[in-house]
Amino acid sequence: MAAGHTIDALGQFELHSVLGPVGASVGFSESTLMMVVSSALTLLLLGVGMSAKAVVPGRLQALAEMIYDFVHTMCIEQIGEEGKKFFPFIFTLFMFILLGNLLGLLPFSFTYTSHIAVTFGLAAMVIVLVTGVALAIHGWHFFSYFFPAGAPIALSPLIVTVEIISYLSRPVSLSIRLFANMVAGHVMFEVFASFIVMMAGAGVVGYLGGIGPLALNVILMGFELLVACLQAYVFAVLTCIYLHDAVHLH
Amino acid sequence: MRSIAAISGLAGVLLTSSAFAEGAKKGMPQLDFHNPLTISQVVWLAIIFTVLYVLLSKWALPQVAGVLEARASAIAADLDAARGAKQAADAAIAELTQATIAAQATARGEIATATAAAKDAADAQSAILNAKLEAQLAAAEKQIDAARASAVGALRQVATEATAVVVSRLTGLTADAAAVEQAVGSVLAARAA
To answer: Per-domain residue ranges for chain A?
Structure first.
């Protein structure tokens, strides 16, 4: 919030423990609370939506089926037939990030995807899974991934180095992309909102002048809704592409 | 490429954060790793994500898959039933067409037979009638001939008598019967010729 004449755009990302002393003792913060809420909403959507088991679906069932079909199609198209095994993981990842992004746009809410610790945790999970799958399927042959067949042997030190750096940068780019997108959007919200409050302090002219940043924030909200869905999709689809590489090696 | 973008993104975020954090003097809360809550998030993330994954993969997603499969199989069964019904309908239509063609052929044959029979019967009847009529005609002609012959015989006698009377009245003489008869006979013969 705007304290005096400074803009504290980053205060919204500060963590506080919730649920009183019990929450404090186990490090249960707003971030964790929103993780629980988004997980509960995901389960509620599927549980309530699919409870009718109707052949002709109602609205909630249609929504649940649409998301299911969307992620399922993405898995099969990106990974291939083996994608079915990874579908529950991709679905969990997609819904966790999507609801984290969307719920974070609500007032008084908290965006856990705006914390690098969380996004890096997710990316680390993905990369450990991808490497584990690749090793389980291909064994030692997996390391040929770092040296493409047909490349000149003389260049091998350079190519292998570049390939390893590229492989290791995957979790970094994956986590920072999501983190930076979320932080940037929320910082902009805060900055424009602070402008409105500061303008309002300037009297009648300020009330009129506050309309500008307010309109910008309205437009920004539409844009952020797009970004929230897009970043969840990007994270999921990149995970699928990495899994494809792990299953097929190039 | 991706790593370059990522690093520049990180640099951008850090720059903006330092620009805005001047008032706060604390930097980004996300990078404050001395705060135990920052790290506890990761632990909670692992726990919550695992629970969500297990619940989704064991309970929620199989439900959706079951409904989708049930729908797909129901649609397939309905399509099969419709295809079967269509085949039955096609077969029935073909049978109907065959039956119609056969019935038409039978009817045509029966009509031809009946027509031929009726024609034969009519022919026979008309032949009998013709024969009867011809016989009657022949009998009638015979009667007419007989009547004419008797009439012609009577005419000779009348003519002879009339001639004898006319001769005796004109001449006052009694005409020779034989000569009159001969003369009348020759005249009648000339008329008849």
So the answer is: 2-6+15-248
